[in-house]
Amino acid sequence: MKDFKSLLKIEFHRIFSNKVLLAIFFGAPLLYGFLFGYVYQQAKVVDLPMLIVDEDHSPLSDKLIDAFQDNEGLEVSEVRYTSGDIAAEMPYREYAAVVTIPQDFEAEILQKRHPEVRVDLNMANILNANIASKNIQSVLMTMNAGIEIEGLKKQGFSPEQARDSYESFKINFNKLYNSTGNYLTFMLPGLLAAIMQQVIFLALALVFARDFEDNYFQILANTNKRSVYHIGLKAVPFFILIPVMWFLVSGFIPYFRIDADIFNLPMLLLTILLSLASMGIGMLFSIIFPSQLKATELLMVISTPAFVLSGFTWPSLAIPAAIQNFAQIIPLTHFLNGFRKIAFYGGDLSSISHELGLLSIIIAVSFMAMSIILHFKIKKIRSSGEVEIVS
């Protein structure tokens, strides 16, 4: 036990003497937390620039333009009377949409000829295009309904009769779980979890790889022959440091006023298992690849696409089966599935039992693999009888 404490002090010294590790482990979560929080702080996309080509110049077209200007999601950047070369202007203006009101628009409506309003969407940014399309449809449908109702009133219908004749049935959308469509609530928790997984991956990828590179592991191997002993020696400092980082990162949720229930027992257990699974994979790569650069580079291959593959933003049902299977070995996939159930659906431990089970399997498999591989490395060093002193 005395030797373990002495070696543990050395481990803390080696961790805090590694400036790259400190910058990654302590700096990245906090820096990216503030960065992404402020990026999405507006919570929803507003004032998307649009161009209106008014070929009609009528009171009705002016009324339609006013309706577009009153919509918070859209900003009428320009109104012109001829279209010009929109394709040539798009790289400079980057309109989210171009709405063309045709010539004789008002006259054809009065004659019941059903003119066509053309909407050109800029699909280079699909998110902006979808939001612009939704707001444009809302304005046009409202205007269309208003015109129809006014026409019925002119035919002698009372306002109530005109409205009831046009509106055959009512539609009521009830938005559950993030009812305001707050993009900050949707994106930031998932991004923070992805950052923490990547930070743990990279930090643990250095623990054994660094020892192999500077020959310090030869000293450790001759102090104790049990692989579990050395795994515990490397893990204990992070059992202390990782909870500190989770505590700091979790503060972004109330700081940015995100409506998510995360301070509860199911979330605590889910977070612990994510941390252990990430530690297991990071440490396993550190043992298999005795090079800090190679271990971190290979872990980046896993961690970089993890957020996309998790199904958090793009539905898993739309991802090919082979890629879905690969995503199952990434702890973040199961954490984010469980996170949504707890934070937004108000689930309990039973609702995330599947995710907890899969994370436990990742932990068990990585621990067994670490123990076996490390056992043979220790045996090889001890049988050689050579001990080099770390410089």
TrEMBL record:
It is found in: Cell membrane. PANTHER family: ABC TRANSPORTER PERMEASE (PTHR30294:SF46), MEMBRANE COMPONENT OF ABC TRANSPORTER YHHJ-RELATED (PTHR30294). InterPro entries: ABC-2_transporter_component (IPR051449), ABC2_TM (IPR013525), ABC_2_transport (IPR000412). It comes from Christiangramia sabulilitoris. GO terms for cellular component: ATP-binding cassette (ABC) transporter complex. The chain crosses the membrane at residues 20-40, 183-209, 235-256, 268-289, 298-323, 356-376. GO terms for molecular function: ABC-type transporter activity. Residues 19-369 form the ABC-2 type transporter transmembrane domain. The keyword Disulfide bond does not apply. Keywords: Cell membrane, Membrane, Transmembrane, Transmembrane helix. Its main location: membrane. It comes from the Bacteria. It is a multi-pass membrane protein. This is ABC transporter permease.
